[in-house]
Amino acid sequence: MSISLQECVEDKCESVAALGLQAIALLCEDDVLEFYAAWRVVHKALPKIPQQVCMLTLTPSLSA
Fold this sequence. Notes:
Blueprint: H1 5-10, H2 14-29, H3 35-45, H4 51-58, H5 60-63
Helix pairs in contact: 3-4
């Protein structure tokens, strides 16, 4: 059985959602996943998070 990152982020279990967000952040950090592609997934699951906060979270190199 496999689970997508989108399914992880949308999971009702906070631990699973946190792991999904961490995986997305690592993929963005290593330039495997583009921020705006990640943003669409995160925003769908967590629409109240502002894009600016998400950008700082998903792109650690920008916040350094």
